[in-house]
Amino acid sequence: MLAGISLGLLAAGRGGWVERLLNLVADSLLALPGLLLVLMVSVIVPSTPLALWLGLSLVLWVEFFRLSRATGRSVLASPGIEASRLLGFGAFYRFRHHLWPEMAPVMLTAMAFGMANALMAIAALGFVHVGIPAPTPELGTMMVELLPYWREAPLALLAPVLVTFLLLLGLLLMSGGDTKASTAGNIAGARA
């Protein structure tokens, strides 16, 4: 998230060849299937959770990059940003007081969806024995290890499935809640 927002604001603020280069990198990463890129990184750095998270970060930063570039472009062209720049306020002040309040609802929603996508990808990779190695507990690996015992103990197999479902449902409900709360706040602010 941090890399995507930073690069998106850099592209929106600089424009020109910087924006074209970052768009080219983002489009190149989107051309590859996400799980294939994660598998390629995990082959380079085998059997470590760091490789899995690095591969997922390489896939998921593009969403934040595109959203922050689109939102940042319109906010950076606003008179408030220009006034702050002319008054001598720094980049951090402009980000904190002008950019982040406009970007926060969109970015927090994208963060919840990104976390849900990461959880599904990790569980899917663990389910096919490509994810985190066996001593580390992981939901996809638990499902595969408990699958032969589904007749004797169906609730044991149901536990990791239910935990995965509830985690994804909670994240998706949080993402919808952020949007509804920000919309309700915007409507209340407009009425006042």
Task: Produce the secondary structure layout.
Blueprint: H1 2-14, H2 16-31, H3 34-44, H4 49-76, H5 79-86, H6 91-127, H7 139-146, H8 154-191
In words, what does this structure look like?
By secondary structure, this protein is mainly alpha-helical. The chain has a single domain, classed as MetI-like fold. Helices cover 83% and strands 0% of the residues. It has helices spanning 2-14, 16-31, 34-44, 49-76, 79-86, 91-127, 139-146, 154-191. It is elongated, with a radius of gyration of 21 Å. Residues 179-192 have low confidence and may be disordered.
CATH architecture: Orthogonal Bundle
User: Gyration radius, to the nearest Å?
Assistant: 21 Å
- CATH superfamily, by name, is MetI-like
**What gap, in angstroms, lies between the N and C termini?**
33 Å
- Number-wise, the strands total 0
Largest sheet: none
Q: The CATH topology is what?
A: MetI-like fold
Structure described in brief:
With 192 residues, the chain is an all-alpha fold. The protein is 83% helix and 0% strand. The longest helix is centred in the C-terminal third of the chain and has 38 residues, at 154-191.
Please name the defining characteristics of this protein.
192 residues; mainly alpha; MetI-like fold; 8 helices; 0% strand; elongated; disordered C terminus
